């Protein structure tokens, strides 16, 4: 898919966040050409610029706005991926990092191994952690659920490289889909170079109708578990026990389930 880059000047870069544990979000890009079919961000920013994944807004003055000193945890990014393919050419994320006040408490999240390019800048921050989203989608699963993203091995290698460079790392295990995402396997593959973990179960409602149809047709049992209260309750119960038994530092599981919500580990 050809990606249209829309260059835009904005007034602010730091946005107050309502995500638990996050004070500010920074998105130098809006939109994401990784185009994950379940992406929740498309509901947040809308598709007025065209089909999700076909366009990216680049906030061209983001580097100068990044200088601001803010208190609390800053997460980059929440409605885009800071290392999506256009970044290799535009280097907007790199410029934002270069100009950002290094006293800001920064947490970066991406699905791309391009993140290792900026290790030299990460090292300048007083407080920083770098995370990769990992799930166990491969082969047919990946082609259906996340066709445009870097393969899992590349993400795991990136985590190792970041860790070997002395940086604090985390794995965001998401989306967890019953019978598809192998949480224990992911932890075993990453535990030697990941400092802590976050877990998130797929939020089917926010993933949208198109994705729900894909899931229903191709993974009917997963769909059943996600849509029937008793099955879902048993799944979440088992997931909490599974994660607690892994002996890792887990921050919590976002279950997206009424009554449980975010479960601290
Ligand atoms: S990488 Fe993240 S922001 Fe980009 S499309 Fe996928 S889920 Fe959305």
The number of helices is: 12
Helix content range: 25-40%
* Major sheet strand order: 2-3-6-7-8-9-10-11-12
Bound molecules: iron/sulfur cluster
- Oligomeric status of the shown chains? single chain
Number of strands: 12
Total tally of structural domains: 2
Poorly predicted regions are: none
Shape: globular
Strand content: 15-25%
Instruction: Report the radius of gyration as a whole number of Å.
Output: 18 Å
How far apart lie the N and C ends?
Answer: 40 Å
Write the element-wise H/E pattern from the N-terminal end onward: EEEEHEHEHHEHEHHEHEHHHHEE
Biggest β-sheet strands, sense, barrel: 9 strands, mixed
Question: How would you describe what is shown here?
Answer:
The chain has 265 residues and is of the alpha/beta class. It folds into two domains: 1-100, no CATH class; 111-265, no CATH class. It has helices at 41-45, 62-65, 86-90, 92-99, 119-122, 139-145, 152-164, 183-190, 204-207, 209-218, 220-227, 229-244, and strands at 4-8, 14-16, 24-26, 29-30, 55-59, 73-76, 105-110, 127-134, 168-176, 196-201, 250-254, 262-264. A nine-stranded mixed beta sheet has the order 2-3-6-7-8-9-10-11-12, with helices on one face. A three-stranded mixed beta sheet has the order 1-5-4, with no helix packed on it. α5 links the parallel β7 (105-110) and β8. α10 (209-218) packs across α11 and α11 (220-227) packs across α12. The protein is globular, with a radius of gyration of 18 Å. The model has no long low-confidence stretch (mean pLDDT 95). Iron/sulfur cluster binds at residues 32, 34-36, 39, 41, 80-81, 111.
């Amino acid at each position: 898919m050809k990606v249209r880059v829309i260059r835009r000047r904005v007034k602010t870069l730091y946005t107050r966040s309502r995500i638990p544990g996050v004070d500010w979000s920074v998105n130098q890009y809006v939109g994401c050409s990784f185009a994950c079919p379940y992406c929740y961000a498309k509901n947040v920013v809308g598709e007025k610029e065209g089909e999700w994944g076909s366009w990216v807004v680049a906030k061209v003055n983001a580097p100068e706005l990044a200088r601001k000193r803010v208190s609390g945890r800053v997460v980059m990014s929440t409605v885009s991926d800071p290392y999506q393919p256009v970044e290799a050419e535009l280097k907007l994320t790199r410029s934002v990092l270069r100009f950002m006040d290094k006293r800001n408490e920064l947490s970066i999240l991406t699905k791309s191994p391009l993140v290792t390019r900026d290790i030299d800048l990460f090292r300048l921050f007083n407080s920083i952690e770098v995370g990769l989203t990992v799930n166990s989608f491969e082969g047919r699963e990946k082609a259906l659920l996340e066709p445009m993203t870097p393969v899992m091995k590349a993400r795991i290698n990136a985590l190792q490289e970041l860790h070997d460079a002395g940086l604090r790392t985390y794995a965001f295990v998401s989306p967890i889909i019953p019978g598809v995402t192998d949480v224990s396997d992911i932890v075993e593959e990453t535990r030697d170079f990941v400092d802590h973990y976050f877990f998130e179960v797929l939020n089917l409602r926010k993933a949208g109708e198109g994705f729900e149809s894909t899931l229903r047709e191709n993974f009917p049992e997963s769909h059943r578990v996600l849509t029937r209260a008793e099955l879902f309750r048993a799944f979440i119960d088992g997931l909490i026990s599974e994660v607690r038994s892994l002996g890792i530092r887990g921050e919590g599981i976002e279950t997206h389930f009424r009554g449980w919500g975010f479960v601290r580990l």
